[in-house]
Write a structure and sequence with these properties.
- This protein is of the alpha/beta class.
- 41% of the residues lie in helices and 11% in strands.
- The protein has 19 helices and 14 strands.
Length: 503
Amino acid sequence: MTTIPTTASDSGSAAGDTLSRDALAVLQPGFDGTTAPDWVRRRIGEGLASVALFGRNVVSEKQVTALTAQLRTERDDLLVAIDEESGDVTRLDVRTGSSFPGNHALGAVDDPQLTRAVSRELGRRLAACGVNFDWAPSADVNANPDNPVIGVRSFGASPDLVARHTAAWVEGLQSTGVAACTKHFPGHGDTNVDSHHAVPRIDVDADTLHARELPPFRAAIAAGTRAVMSAHILVPALDPDRPGTLSRRILTELLRGELGYQGLIVTDGMEMRAISGTYGLEHGVVLAIAAGADAICVGGGLCDERTVLNLRDALVAAVRSGELPEERLADAATRVRALAAWTAAARGDADRTPADPEIGLVAARRALTVTRAGAAAPVTEPVFTAQFNPAPNIAVGDQTPWGVAAELQRLLPGSTSGSFTGDGAGAAVLAAAGGRRIVAVVRDAHRHDWMRSALDTLLAARPDTVVVEMGLPQAPPRGAPHIATYGAARVCGVAAAEAVVAG
């Protein structure tokens, strides 16, 4: 066997070695910038089979199209991945808000045909930009409404509902030649910790897990999902020692063995503290591949060449030391290349259904729930929109605008707005609003004491306040009226503003 350097280097012998090429092939790294860096193009030539795009790489669809074309000058079947769930988690529309409602809104409508149409249109847009691998949909069952990271990213709390919409979403997306990646296996819905920060734990028995968490993944597999993403969660009923991403029992015995899944297994972001803070990044990557993962998501935070070289060399060193079987690394690389080949072949077979650019807004309008308490006067004059901002989770990020203020300013010229947070927010809104009708926009009010207190203050002083809930509508509806959007996508804000004005 050719000697492989065990520290990060740019050795010519490493570039041509099969083992090194396999180690590069299993990585799905990110990078900085809106054009293709030279180092990325060079590593593609040496065996890298995937790259990942994040919000920092996106300015416009035209720019993304040029970027992916640059990347493919080195490898025509390159996998270009993106975390585009639509709804609250969007990268393609990171600067404007998504043109499509997210899972919870689609689950609220509960029309699988609509879900399929929305994901088909999303896939059409991704494919037109040269993106062929989407880390979506979320198949998590929203068993814990206080979950800090899933929430409106879930289709709902019913395993059957989540299963049928997961299948529809996968079918719609993949009809365009874009591979779906169903996540977060074996289910992230019943957690109260964000795995970006620590290791969540799900303490339920195996029967509950099989009945509640697994049906959506079974449905996704039956629908032909090309990839499944692992979760960095500890599930003692399945494996008391290792989180899902690092667990052979979960990835190989359960997902491959019991569920019969044969596609690509990709990890959630390996820089997340649940892995990197517990096992270390390099060691965590080796453990993940050994457990049965085929592809390593990295680059949401660490997006430099040195990280890629360190991970490549850690995998090579693990094979040479006997910690990682060479056959396991080769099998993982083969699965990555097989998915790349599928996407290349699928371009010619993609669904040619005409574009439907309004389907996202149509779906957002259908998802609205308007609850009226008494006979509130219609909104006909300029309003003051008060947006209550909770701290965003890392998956959603803080780059993407949300709310209804911009659309209300368009519909009711002269309207103004402000953003508020923390104790005293209600009094601050009353002072800022003057005599104007108030539209209070909240997000997961049930999870934030200060937000509920602010609504108490507003509704006591101004019972004609309109309340728009753009998160999980768990708190009892109140307001004149109360409008639930089931997500904070741009189109959800448009639909809610229309409902405010319509009364």
